[in-house]
């Protein structure tokens, strides 16, 4: 089993303040010696997890990088793509989600995702760590402080719902957005994170998702599609042109996402080791391949490459390599990047136009489609035949791809159903959409009484 697979198995079977990390040099010898000596208490204690300063330093850095992805990275990426009258509203939504998700994660989200849920553990965690009970200075998660692990996972819980913002940009009430995101975090994100990483049924089944292809990207992309469908199209769409107002902001934001993603993927190893190094390498390779694949696809189709296209293609590559980042090799990363660049381009242009839905900033086309491509190709590229770290013992490529498909379908169905119900209930109780006059005026002035630019 790969290092990433071992960590995934550990997530599924151990409480985080008791976890032993079997990646360290000499681990098999120490286990053998302990067994030979009859598992004496003193030696058993010696096998308990110990803080590693190198791992801790790396994870502190990775946590900051992932937070950097949302604010300012995602905020700027989205802000540049909306019309000038809505630039502040999108940045406000990302900023407010960062605050809201942080509080909810500390109060109950972390516990629901990573605590033992007892009889219901296959589906949801328990409340033993609600309000971060027992998470102190000395508690460990493997070789890092549990506080660091909790905060690292918090940054994932922040960026996942923030991604959804792009699907309903320019038309949702701020109050409704807060209610939807808060409930979605607890009822959708936390359970699926538990299914895959916290000891739930998908992790136990053998689904591979190193850094969040299903948990983050398919999850957010499907929720975004549901939001776009329930709210309906923006006034004038698609007849009225609605081009990005400031692509400079978008490229700066995309660049920040690219850099921050090294924390996202390499940080998911939870250690400063060879697997983290390979995760960083394949992230760079896949992102570059996807950016070029999208650019050339657009060039062939429209006669010119665009700045928006290459930036969005890079994000598509980042999304697709995420689930495979701990198991794929460099050649697998090239494959994933190339396929996701072309696939996400087609989904965000031709498929979107054919179906007629108004996903403002292509959350479904980039994150759901990219996540699906990455999740399925993880089952291929993890194989040593494709230069990967290796599949679990006794599992072939076909079997692993089938397991990946189970994870994809389960995530799509659960997210779609619960997100749709949440949106419909909130719409009935308080209304989701701003008035036609507010939409025409722009959400910056209508909802926040501010302007992004002084004209």
Entry keywords:
455 residues, disordered N terminus, 17 helices, Ammonium transporter fold, two-stranded antiparallel ribbon, globular, mainly alpha
> Which geometry do the CA atoms define?
globular
Number of helices: 17
Name given to the CATH homologous superfamily: Ammonium transporter AmtB like domains
State the helicity in percent bands. Answer: 55-70%
Regions with pLDDT < 50 over 5+ consecutive residues? 1-46
Assign the CATH topology: Ammonium transporter fold
CATH class: Mainly Alpha
Gyration radius, rounded: 22 Å
Strand residue percentage? under 5%
Please identify, by name, the CATH architecture.
Orthogonal Bundle
Class per helix and strand makeup: mainly alpha
- Largest sheet entry: 2 strands, antiparallel
pLDDT averaged over residues? 91
From the N-terminal CA to the C-terminal CA, the straight-line distance is: 60 Å
SSE pattern: HHHHHEEHHHHHHHHHHHH
Tell me the count of domains. 1
Q: Would you count the extended β strands for me? A: 2
**Side-by-side strand order of the widest sheet:** 1-2
Q: In summary, what is this structure?
A:
This protein is mostly helical.
């Amino acid at each position: 089993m790969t290092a990433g697979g071992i960590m995934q198995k550990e997530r599924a079977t151990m409480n985080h303040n008791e976890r032993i990390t079997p990646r360290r040099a000499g681990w098999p010898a120490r286990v053998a010696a302990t067994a030979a000596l009859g598992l004496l208490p003193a030696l058993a204690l010696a096998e308990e997890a110990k803080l590693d300063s190198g791992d801790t330093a790396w994870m502190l850095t990775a946590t900051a990088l992932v937070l950097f992805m949302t604010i300012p990275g995602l905020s700027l990426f989205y802000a540049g793509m909306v019309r000038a009258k809505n630039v502040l509203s999108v940045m406000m939504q990302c900023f407010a989600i960062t605050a809201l998700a942080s509080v909810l994660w500390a109060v109950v989200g972390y516990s629901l995702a990573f605590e033992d849920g007892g009889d219901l553990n296959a589906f949801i965690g328990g409340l033993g760590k609600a309000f971060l009970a027992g998470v102190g200075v000395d508690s460990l998660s493997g070789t890092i402080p549990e506080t660091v692990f909790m905060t690292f996972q918090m940054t994932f819980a922040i960026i996942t719902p923030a991604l959804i913002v792009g699907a309903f940009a320019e038309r949702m009430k701020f109050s409704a957005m807060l209610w939807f995101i808060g409930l979605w975090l607890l009822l959708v994100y936390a359970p699926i994170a538990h299914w895959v990483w916290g000891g739930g049924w998908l992790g136990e089944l053998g689904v591979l998702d190193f850094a969040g292809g299903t948990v983050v990207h398919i999850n957010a992309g499907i929720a975004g599609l549901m939001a776009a469908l329930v709210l309906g199209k923006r006034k004038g769409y698609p007849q009225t042109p609605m081009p990005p107002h400031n692509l400079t902001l978008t490229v700066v934001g995309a660049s920040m996402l690219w850099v921050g993603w090294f924390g996202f993927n390499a940080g998911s190893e939870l250690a400063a080791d060879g697997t983290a190094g390979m995760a960083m390498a394949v992230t760079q390779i896949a992102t570059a391949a996807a950016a070029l694949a999208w650019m050339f696809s657009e060039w062939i189709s429209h006669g010119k490459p665009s700045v928006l296209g290459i930036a969005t293609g890079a994000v598509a590559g980042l999304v697709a390599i995420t689930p495979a980042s701990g198991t794929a090799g460099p050649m697998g990363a090239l494959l994933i990047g190339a396929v996701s660049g072309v696939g996400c381009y087609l989904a965000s242009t031709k498929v979107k136009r054919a179906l007629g839905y108004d996903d403002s900033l292509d959350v479904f086309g980039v994150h759901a489609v990219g996540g699906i491509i990455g999740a399925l190709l993880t089952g291929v590229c993890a194989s040593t035949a494709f230069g990967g770290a290796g599949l679990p013992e006794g599992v072939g490529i076909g079997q692993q791809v089938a397991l990946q498909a189970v994870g994809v379908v389960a995530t799509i169905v659960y997210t779609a159903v619960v997100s749709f119900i949440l949106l419909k209930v909130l719409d009935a109780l308080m209304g989701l959409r701003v008035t036609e006059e507010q939409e025409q005026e722009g959400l910056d002035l209508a909802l926040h009484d501010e302007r992004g630019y002084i004209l």
